[in-house]
Amino acid sequence: MAEKSMRIDVEQPTTASLPKRVSYSQMSLYQQCGLKYFFSYIDGWREPPTSALAGGSITHEVVEHLYRLSPNDRTLEAAMDLLREHGPRMLKATEYKPFESDMKMKHSVKEAIENLFVVEDPKEVVVQPEHLEMELSVPINGVNFFGKVDRFTVDGVNRVTDYKTGKSPGKFVDDKLAQPYLYALGFKTQFEIDVDEVELIFLNAKEVVRRPADSGLVIEQGEKLAQMRAGSESDVASSSWEARVSRLCDYCAFERVCPARRPEAPIPGSTACDIQLTDAGLFHK
Ligand code: SF4
Q: Averaged over 6-11, what is the pLDDT?
């Protein structure tokens, strides 16, 4: 995916260390761009929340609560009641308050929830409450992995499901499947449960993608997790990270201070860099 790749030396405290546990989103971010990973997880900058993030969080909350109801109560009316209950509450939280009047986002959330009833019949989904938002925390290939699985269903097929909001993945669908494949490995390692199938439900796009949990693809994600950890250990030891320039740079909160995009940019991690990021409205975790 990267169009150009270059090593960037950074300023980091001698005590800089990697997170103790690694999630799929950390792994994915590192694969996308090591320098962006440095800004987020070593230098500790937090990207400002986006309306897409707010909408995705509300959608997940509503869908989770819907599946906690008994099957016959999982109606569209019940889902809309849950949206009216949880949407305004979540938009009062400091991080999502800027989007309280974002009608486009609210429409998108409503559409996503309505579409759930198009892509599946929630009354027919066999799921136990303890199998919603399941937490995984287990060493995989020597890496402390953690994650949260949207839904695990057992109806003759053991299936890990993740809901997605936003656009259709199009040709990038295989990249998106990396997450449930890794979760399938987490299930096997933590609970000794074999996952038969992985599923992604793209709610706004009304697309359901199911694939067999092919053992080769599942194992491959565990290997990538170990590679990511080894790579980031080497990067933090050398204070040097790989910047991978791609089309995703246009959406990167650190683009304004990225030496791979702007030769005049300050050294990442320096005081001058911190000042620019603070001025741009970013803040430390
Ligand atoms: S602008 Fe691009 S290369 Fe620079 S940190 Fe962001 S994603 Fe990486």
A: 97
User: Running DSSP on this structure, what letter comes out for residue 254?
Assistant: T
Residue-level pLDDT at 48:
84
CA distances from 237 to 36, 129, 141, 171 (A): 17, 43, 21, 36
Cβ contacts of 5 within 8 Å, gap of 6 or more = 242, 243, 244, 245
Please identify, by atom number, the ligand 1 atom nearest to the C-alpha of residue 35: 5
Tell me if 243 CB under 6 Å of ligand 1.
yes
Give the list of residues 6+ apart from residue 4 with CB closer than 8 angstroms, or none: 244, 245, 260
Averaged pLDDT score across all residues of the chain: 95
Answer whether 255 contacts ligand 1 (Cβ < 6 A).
yes
Structural domains in the chain plus CATH codes: 4-48+242-284 (no CATH), 51-124 (no CATH), 129-222 (3.90.320.10)
Question: Which of 5, 8, 29, 36 to probe ligand 1 with, by most ligand atoms within 8 A of CB?
Answer: 36
What is the residue with the minimal CA distance to atom 5 of ligand 1? 36
Q: With contact defined as beta carbons under 8 Å apart, do 12 and 236 qualify?
A: yes
Cβ-based neighbours of 15, under 8 Å, separated by 6 or more: none
Structure tokens at 120: 């599946």
Ligand 1 centre to CA of 245 (Å) is: 6
Contact 231, 5 (CB under 8 A): no
For residues 41 and 16, give the distance between their C-alpha atoms in angstroms, rounded to a whole number.
Answer: 10
Closest CA to 199 of 163, 243, 147, 146: 163
Query: Which residue is closest in CA terms to ligand 1's atom 1?
Result: 255
What's the rounded mean pLDDT across residues 71-94?
A: 97
Task: Please check the confidence at residue 1 and state whether its pLDDT lies above 80.
Answer: no
In the three-class reduction of DSSP (H, G, I as helix; E, B as strand; rest coil), residue 86 is classed as helix
